[in-house]
Amino acid sequence: MTLPSWMPTVVEAIYFIAAVLFIWGLKRMSSPRTARQGIVWAGAGMAAAIIVTFFLPGMHNLGWMIAAIVVGVVISWIVGRRVPMTAMPQMVALFNGMGGGAAAAIGAVELIKFNAALKLVPDTSPIQPEAWADVAGHLGTTELVLAFVGVLIGAVSFTGSLIAFAKLQGWMDRRFVFPLQRWVNLVIFAAAVVCGAIALAAGIEGHAFAWGWLIGFIVLSLVFGIAMTLPIGGADMPVVISMYNAFTGLAVAFEGFVLQNEAMIIAGMVVGAAGTLLTQLMAKAMNRSLGNVLFSNFGAGGGGATQQEIAGALKPIDAADAAVMMAYAERVAIVPGYGMAVAQAQHKIWEFAKLLIERGVKVKFAIHPVAGRMPGHMNVLLAEAGVPYDLIEDMDDINPEFPNTDVALVIGANDVVNPVARTDKNSPIYGMPILDVAKAKNVIVIKRGRGKGFAGIENALFYADNTRMLYGDGQAAASELVAGLKTLDV
Amino acid sequence: MITGFLALYIFMLAAFTGYEIISRVPVILHTPLMSGSNFVHGIVLVGAMVALGHAETPIEIAIGVVAVLLAAGNVAGGYVVTERMLEMFKTSKPGAGSAGAGPHRGPR
User: Fold this and answer.
1) Interface of B with A in 19-48 (CB under 8 A)
2) Which of A120, A139, A108, A125 is nearest to A203 (CA)?
3) By the 8 A CB rule, do A108 and A218 touch?
4) Could you report the per-residue pLDDT of A204-254, keeping only the tens digit for each?
5) Residue A128 DSSP label
6) Of the partner residues B45, B60, B89, the one whose CB lies closest to the CB of residue A109
7) Predicted ipTM > 0.90
8) A272 touches chain B (CB under 8 A)
9) Global confidence as pTM
10) Is B95 on the interface with A (CB under 8 A)?
11) Are B18 and A22 in contact (CB under 8 A)?
12) How far apart are CA A34 and CA A42, in angstroms?
């Protein structure tokens, strides 16, 4: 099939439009009212860019290409449609990992092609210009460097995201920690860099390199992604996923440069920068630096200083009493956490909140930025249940209101409401911004058992004088609360 | 051809664009936006297609197919997940009263 000579120009133009649509789409996605259209715009740009790529000159293997696209799209589409909303964070991790893997694979293909062409050139030094000009897939120094860096970042993002996925999915619930782990990881990383540098140095000088260096580089990069993610605990996964999201963006931008594809450069770089900022925002919400998240082995126990003892007793309450308490309250704040997601209790909680609103109670939902497994995780779940977003308050807006709140209902949240973060300097979560739930007149905590939160720290809130514990699975407890309210009306 | 400093400028401008877009986002949209940017880097599919389209030896083709497969998964999965999240965002209509709207809002 011969393509008209103007075809490449059309393709370039469509890539340009796609890049505009991506930025426009992301912009729209940053406001709740226009967010829906945002993804549609970006999707239109993506579809156009993919279709015109078939019409680039000199494309082979179209059969394989179409087959791989169909298989990849169909599987992901079905999986993406079927997973419950609570599993969204790990799905983002999984799909992000696939993107990183793709970027690394592109770099690998380009480097293989480059090296294979070099091997055909007589290995003379200095290299003969006429022989050099024949090298198909000639890559300049910048392209070579970026190809290697892109493979490294993409490969780390690939295996790292898969580990994050496995952890969030519950396939790997223990952190994998051993002595000198940081040094082992450093050695793996250094070995990967050395292998890459040897191949890179040869390539820049125009000599073919032994395949072993390239293979070693790729394998070690993949291993490093695993090794780096294994010791990080589940509570820190949001930050890690966001970081790998930024990594994939960067890898895509670099490989886009290697392929001289502007759409990839711009889209990848925008995501790289946006993802980096998002990662910082998340780490900041937990009052920790990124380095701290990655290397501190948080919550591993065995810390040096002893934490303050918490005095008091856990005081249980039953659902009927809790329901009455809230029914006659003026203001109620509902504080959801990951426990609500696990119990899928968001629908029941909203049903309960609606009944309270009907009775004239002022109900607000208070969301900590890192409640759940991703920033905004709780917002998504509440939105799924149909909670209008104007009832949902951020931490900074709701904190001053807690002293005027009659009842704070905590469901499945733990570390983000632990007052120890303000009072105990020896606590690992000291300094983390928290919701001031303890300042509410009454606190009811729905909790499955007496276990600790993700950080493995006792929660002083549970022992406070104004706190009552409502034990039970989130959904069951919420159902009992609803039933309790309904009996009042009879 | 994009070379040297021109590339650097593109990198720089694109980076600022990404930074600016995110910096004004309410926390409520962080997860969908992360998912949305995850979809946008699915553009890697275009690169994977180019790499596979110019692959010649079996090993290049094999890695190229893997690249296209993974990238296609990134695009489709990223879109579906983002779309599902954003589908759920809506305001309570002023005046309508959320109590009255209740029974009609079945679980999805």
Assistant:
1) 19, 21-48
2) A139
3) yes
4) 888 888 899 999 999 999 999 999 998 887 667 888 999 999 999 999 999
5) P
6) B60
7) no
8) yes
9) 0.78
10) no
11) no
12) 13
